[in-house]
Amino acid sequence: MWTEVTPGWLPWHPNPSEPAFTAPEGAVDAHCHVFGPAAEFPFAPERKYTPVDAGKEQLFALRDHLGLSRNVIVQATCHGSDNSALVDALRASGGRARGVASVTSDVTREELERLHAAGVRGVRFNFVKRLVDAAPTEALETIAAKIAPLGWHVVLYFEAPDLPDLRDFFLSLPVTLVIDHMGRPDVGADPEGPEFTGFLDFVARSGAWVKVSCPERLTRTGPPALDGEQHAYTDVVPFARKVVETFPDRVLWGTDWPHPNLTDHMPDDGLLLDHVPQIAVTPEQRRALLVDNPMRLYWPEE
Ligand SMILES: O=C(O)/C=C(\C=C(/O)C(=O)O)C(=O)O
């Protein structure tokens, strides 16, 4: 089956640079995806974009190229609630990948146990309107109740302006929360301003974990300016540093490879890893961000 890629979509970077930063032993890419390949794992009919193929082999090759050890593979909306490509990648990882799936409210205990056996440890609730028509609150509450006995968490993807309306619902969920990409703050605003301090208050009140990922999605200053210092995404740095400093034991990082829905700039994954020391400025912060925190959340048995 041939699928036409969404016009304007940029493919993932074919030759990411060698990172200058050496990640600590056992580092985890805690937010990435697999797409297809479509011939084997067709994309969901209800999807709102059609990506290029980006399979497990390329993901694991990037892991090795960056000097990372493990992946947390997050179900992307282009596959809907068909987690086949995700499960296939988890099973091929030799225990070096965990997953976050997408399920519907009628999911059975047997299906959840099958996903758990493959390495899934959470589900994703997506509220980004350009990606999905968000499921009704009741359906999400049903899903949260079904996954709680497995010890799974809920990964939340939302945009900052929507948090005030979603906050009470999130606080009502009986599971651990993990927030994608810092809740997509407006990095043109003041990091000490009401929007981001409101986000930090929500994180404190909910005990949520936060991914300090996707500067390339949030930046207004654009891609890295290779000026010898490799300054990158400087407008995002104050926001990410604030989260790392405030919640050092509940932050995660990921490449977001293969970077869906980018049309004007495709990040070099080597430079994304080189961005980490700008937001986690001490070795202790970097070890927590890249190793201790993701291991505690996804491989607590080790
Ligand atoms: O990959 C990301 O985390 C961000 C995006 C896409 C998805 O999360 C998805 O389709 O599931 C986006 O912002 O377009």
From TrEMBL:
Residue ranges of domain Amidohydrolase-related in the record: 28-298
Q: Under the GO molecular function aspect, what terms does this record hold?
A: hydrolase activity
Q: Which UniProt keywords apply?
A: Hydrolase
User: What's the protein here called?
Assistant: 2-pyrone-4,6-dicarboxylate hydrolase
